[in-house]
Amino acid sequence: MTPGAAIAVDSLALLPATEALAGFRSLEISPVEVLEAQIQRIQEHNGDRETGINAFTETLFDSARAQARVAAAQYVRLAREGGVVPALLGLTVATKEKHGIAGLKLEQGLAAHRGRIAPVDHPVVERLKAAGGIIHARTTSPEFSCATTTHSPMWGITRNPWNTRATPGGSSGGSGAALAAGFTTLATASDIAGSTRIPAGFTGTVGYKAPYGRIPGAGVLAADWYRGDGPMGRTVADTALLAGVMSGRHHTDHGSWGENGINPLAAGDVAGLRIGLSLTLGNYPVAAEIRENTLTVARALEAAGAVVVPVDLPWTTARITETTFAHFGHILGPAMATETAGTESELAAYTARFIKDAAEAAQRHSLLDSLAMDHALQAELAAAMAGLDALLCPTSAVASLAADGDYLDGIDTARGHLGHYWEAHLTSAFNVANRCPVFAVPSGMSNDSVPTGVQVIGHPFDEAMAFRVAAAVESLVPGPGFPLLG
Known about the structure:
Strand order of the largest sheet: 1-3-2-6-8-7-14-15-11-9-10
Enzyme class: ligase
Keywords: Ligase
Organism: Paeniglutamicibacter sulfureus
CATH superfamily of one domain: Amidase signature (AS) domain
Shape: globular
Number of strands: 15
Strand content: 5-15%
GO molecular function: asparaginyl-tRNA synthase (glutamine-hydrolyzing) activity; glutaminyl-tRNA synthase (glutamine-hydrolyzing) activity
CATH topology of one domain: Amidase signature (AS) enzymes
Number of helices: 15
Radius of gyration: 21 Å
EC number: 6.3.5.6, 6.3.5.7
């Protein structure tokens, strides 16, 4: 029996990346054991596209097992001979399907893309492989990553491990669900209006939206300044580890910048820091339990020596939605219409609605109008954050959304009706202000048995402060743990 064999399967599957790496280096556990523990959980609990968690578009267990054996042997050799250990050696990473892997499908959930094959690795995938990460599964998203729930005709319904009637969020819902369920150690995500942070909030995990260009992208839409790829994990330290691997200038993306391989996790407490608090970002109808959980985080920061400053922003949900859709109307909406031409009858209802809403917004606003709207929000955020080190606010206004929901008629909340489902989340303003680093970290549980989260927003490009405050929140207000899977 190997030393790690005495550790419970569930404990191995849920081991944080930083602890797994320490165990690998000491030879107390093996990458093979962790992978097999996670495969066992997947086989027992992921289920099918209609009733299960359904976090994956496909699994790559055979190749992952071969890589895990190689990594285990490499750790034995390194223990004997010394040397540099690749940053992710032996760790499992579930990648969002849109992060193409050469020779595998790249369909983005769309009938129009059925059977498409990625010709090359996405820059993120290239870096994961170079760092020794093991890609054992690919995660679900809504069609073209355009919704805040995760279901599609192609891949079925992805459900929240905490409450399978609820969604894990979108668009990186498969990644959030896989992390919460112990199906993977790390995961990749992307974010154009909250697609990393919303799933993190709803699954009790951690998601990071880096400043625009910090993580290289691929394809024409990587030039969209609302967009970005990013890391997800179960802890801030794990997310920082993956961010260091993913980040930095890449030769194929001249919009990317900074050094690669730098772990951005910053040491230091919050004593003396000035942290702004906005419970509603203007008029978001934040549920009472989410407000209270956010206040719990703020009180903990105050008790740790931070100065918490109430912040008022002159924003409305309708204005932020109009601003973002004016932008989408000139970029993402037309791209989606072009990509799906001829298959309109096969689109999910939310995809057709997105294309329609974007087109109508483009009729109301020119691209120049859109830039002016962006600039106004950015200027108001800059004024609100003047003299502060970071800003804190909830991630979502609602406690949960239905796993199969389209919400074409908006969302009813305890504080009134929202005309558009995107108004249920306090995330998209920080894609307008996309040079700001933003974390989503857990803040507690809702009455729906779904986790709640807060966002930590840093000043443009100030990753160190965002990581510092996020780590403090995590240490002061521990996350919800892990769901009991039936």
